[in-house]
Amino acid sequence: MILGIVGLPNCGKTALFNALTDGSAEVAVYAQSGAEPNVGTVKVPDIRVDRLREIFKPKKAIYATVEVIDLPGLPRGSLAEGARVTDFLKRAREVDALVHVVRAFADERVAHPAGTVDPLRDLQDLETELLLSDLAIIERRLERIDGALKKGVERASHEAEQRTLLRFRQVLEDGQPLRALSVSSEEEKMIRGYRFVTLLPVIVVLNIHEGALGADETGALLGQARELFCGPSVRTVVLSAKIEMEMAQLPRDEAEVFLEDLRIEVSAMELLIRTCYDLLGLISFITVGDDEVRAWTIRHGTPAVRAAGAIHSDMERGFIKAEVIGYDAFMAAGSLAGAREKGTLRLEGKEYTVADGDIINFKFNV
Ligand SMILES: Nc1nc2c(ncn2[C@@H]2O[C@H](COP(=O)(O)OP(=O)(O)O)[C@@H](O)[C@H]2O)c(=O)[nH]1
Ligand SMILES: [Mg+2]
After folding, report:
1. How many angstroms separate the alpha carbon of residue 344 from the centre of ligand 2?
2. Model-level pTM?
3. Which ligand is located closest to the Cα atom of residue 110?
4. Which of the listed residues 279, 313, 337 is the one where a domain comes to its end?
5. Residue 314 belongs to domain with CATH number
6. How far out from the chain centre does Cα 180 lie?
7. Per-residue exposure over 78-91, b if at least 16 CB sit within 10 Å of its own CB, e if not
8. Does residue 284 lie within any of the structural domains?
9. Closest ligand 1 atom, CA of 18?
């Protein structure tokens, strides 16, 4: 899975990227819109892996990962400007979800491209850029379809696509993102290749001032943002990218003390990643052993045989059975042998729907 961080210049994208990846990409007061985007990997925090690691003492413990791209800042009103925006959009089309960062922190030392801090305006401005970019794709495609229809080429399929695109265009012209629509699976197939950015699920990140964590005005802002960005494929979270970045650079025990001092239960990064999983319908299953304890990411509803394929295609091809136990049942039994005795370790077939936290041993034959 790939997350794309988007936002206006200086809203804190790179700070957030660093916090997520424990990285140290340059956080610049002046945006470098022309620079190559930062690309990194986020380790998905998972207490289950931590615990299983203590039990199995494997050579290595591997957490699920998510890729993130820190996309170059998209200035306001930039779509008319050409090249760099095209670059931005090309990268934005590789991602599975957008993390839309908006600046809600006041800081005189950090220039704001619009001169004032106004998160709701900025949210809308960036959304407008994205709407316009999808609209441009639709216009171009509609012209082509027109041409094809005049020549009488593949009439039925072109007409079907035209109907869909006209419906999409209307939504965009009304100022709504495509994610507000319900799209049938036939339509989805037809338009998949265009990679419309406003069709992507989005996590709105309100990047607030470190002093505003838990303040009343933060709650009010969150409410307003949620009104503006609503629907099943949108989530909104609040964090301070600066604090998260500082925390990411601390050793773990110190970070925990830091969290306690701020009276935060779970780091915003962890919250953000959990939110992504929820938004994209992702779950993890776990494999265990003396060699490694490892979490794997799959979509909710994946059958066992395809989950095996997430590990290796041979396992999917030669799938025989899956030995499965839920994480909680395993912890209650204390060991695999204990689980076998209790009868909580089950044998499941190809069609078994894998659940979040399942500990699985695949039996296969190639
Ligand atoms: N006070 C404060 N400053 C921040 C915060 N997040 C980012 N900044 C500062 O804002 C500037 C721009 O941040 P950066 O992450 O480079 O923004 P980008 O252009 O969106 O990538 C830097 O000087 C950061 O230190 C925050 O939460 N609080
Ligand atoms: Mg940046």
Report:
1. 50
2. 0.87
3. 1
4. 279
5. 3.10.20.30
6. 18
7. bbeeeeebebbbeb
8. no
9. 15
Over 60: is that where the pLDDT of 359 sits? yes
Query: What is d(CA 349, CA 106) in angstroms, rounded to the nearest whole number?
Result: 56
Domain with 23 in it = 2-279
290 within a domain of the structure (yes/no): no
Q: What is the pLDDT of residue 31?
A: 46
38 pocket-lining for ligand 1 (C-beta < 6 Å): no
Find out whether the beta carbon of 14 lies less than 6 Å from any atom of ligand 1. yes
Together in a domain, 263 and 203: yes
Q: Ligand 2 centroid vs 177 CA: distance in angstroms?
A: 25
In a domain, 291, yes or no: no
Predicted pLDDT of residue 26 = 67
Q: Do 315 and 236 share a structural domain?
A: no
Co-location of 272 and 215 in the same domain: yes
Query: Percentage of residues in the chain with pLDDT exceeding 70?
Result: 92
Strand runs labelled E in 105-256: 202-207, 234-239
Amino acid 351: pLDDT:
97
Q: Decide: 207 in ligand 1 pocket, CB within 6 A.
A: yes
Tell me the pLDDT tens digit for each residue of 73-128. 666 665 545 555 666 777 788 899 999 999 999 888 888 888 899 999 999 988 99
- Whether residue 346 is found in the same domain as residue 209: no
Q: Is it the case that residue 53 has pLDDT exceeding 80?
A: yes
